[in-house]
Amino acid sequence: MALMPVDTALAEILADLDPLPAETVAIGEADGRVLAAALSARRSQPEADMSAMDGYAVASDALPGLPARLRVIGTSAAGHPFQGRVGAGEAVRIFTGALVPAGADTVVIQENTSRDGDDVTLIAATGAGRNVRLAGFDFAAGGLLLPAGHRLDARSLMLAAAGNLAELPVRRRPRIAILQTGDELVRPGDATGAASEVVVSNVYGLAALCRAAGAHVDDLGLVRDDMDATRSAVRDAASRGYDILVTSGGASVGEHDLIAPALRAEGIALSVHKIALRPGKPLMFGRRADLRVLGLPGNPVSAYVCALLFLVPLVNALQGAAPGPNRRPARLAAPVRANDGRRDYMRARTTPSADGGLAVAPFATQDSAMLSVLAQADCLLIREPNAPPGEPGDGCEIIPFNA
């Protein structure tokens, strides 16, 4: 049986997918959520002409020659506008963020003036619009602020708030269940020192990736290598309305690898199994009604890489966001060997290159159980199937971990 190409597997995982329903949340609860509809401003920013500097508001076309002596007729401060009108020979003391009074069209900065009681002398030329933020300078009422599918972050939340939006339409968070299989597994802190024990780690990294992508995650615990127990755990997850069930371990074809037969026994049709990638060849995917099941390898690095390549895009797509992962160009900083028929995702680290880009060097050890290497890496170096040897300076592509 030929191995499925990575891109084909991802397309299958994302096929026939509609984003989850929309819900409305308070803006203070919307960080990291994905917009279900475009946002339009409910006010202009600013609503009226506003001073960009401390100084004096004047009418530029009524100024005499320099130095110009004007009478100060009032003050305009943020939240306390001047109510009158500026005429010839007049000025209003104004502060940053204050409304420009009627009749004025420019602000002379404080450094270019000399104050003497109720009079001010201008010592530098000015022109209409100088040091003034015009109404709608940032955005206009009714204008587009953010498109549907945008993931809200600190900057976009500030923009939405400035547009007078107290509630935002977002996609429901995907609900994800994670279970890990293996008789050898124990929880952190529970290890007895037995050589046969393996302290479980995958679930914590997978949950963190999913939460960072906006999902709600439940840890369903450890499942022993037993068909009845495995089927029961899958059945329980399917009954609880999760959008995605993630399994880790038991995805290969050994006598203790029970995930595939357990899934099939529970009516979950597998459309993806055995992928032409390294690490993570045993990955599987299937569906039953609205439940999507992603079976990840048990080796921790394989599980993480496959989650980055397949699980995170699925979580993103369910929220109507761009699936990813994002690739970035780089240049090799060390030689790499020719690749075989599987796409390789090598753990690597980047440094700034002389041309202003990134230089990337893979770690010497690429074993799929080496968590220490994964923790030191900041990207995956992509090596396409059957790629020839690469030399320092050759172009390449990477997937940054913190893009």
UniProtKB/TrEMBL annotation:
One Gene Ontology term from the biological process aspect of the record: Mo-molybdopterin cofactor biosynthetic process
MF terms in GO: metal ion binding; molybdopterin molybdotransferase activity
Pfam family, one: MoeA_N
PROSITE patterns according to UniProt: MOCF_BIOSYNTHESIS_2
Associated pathway: Cofactor biosynthesis; molybdopterin biosynthesis
Biological role: Catalyzes the insertion of molybdate into adenylated molybdopterin with the concomitant release of AMP.
CDD domains with a match to the protein in the record: MoeA
Family: Belongs to the MoeA family.
Record's protein name: Molybdopterin molybdenumtransferase
Segments forming domain MoaB/Mog: 177-317
CC annotations in GO: cytosol
Cofactor needs: Mg(2+)
UniProt keyword list: Magnesium, Metal-binding, Molybdenum, Molybdenum cofactor biosynthesis, Transferase
InterPro entries per the UniProt record, alphabetical: MoaB/Mog-like_dom_sf, MoaB/Mog_dom, MoCF_biosynth_CS, MoeA-like, MoeA_C_domain_IV, MoeA_C_domain_IV_sf, MoeA_linker/N, MoeA_linker/N_sf
Gene3D superfamilies in the cross-refs: MoaB/Mog-like domain, MoeA, C-terminal, domain IV, Molybdopterin biosynthesis moea protein, domain 2, Molybdopterin biosynthesis moea protein, domain 3
E.C. code: 2.10.1.1
SUPFAM superfamilies: MoeA C-terminal domain-like, MoeA N-terminal region -like, Molybdenum cofactor biosynthesis proteins
Record keyword Manganese present: no
Catalytic activity line of the entry: adenylyl-molybdopterin + molybdate = Mo-molybdopterin + AMP + H(+)
SMART domains: MoCF_biosynth (SM00852)
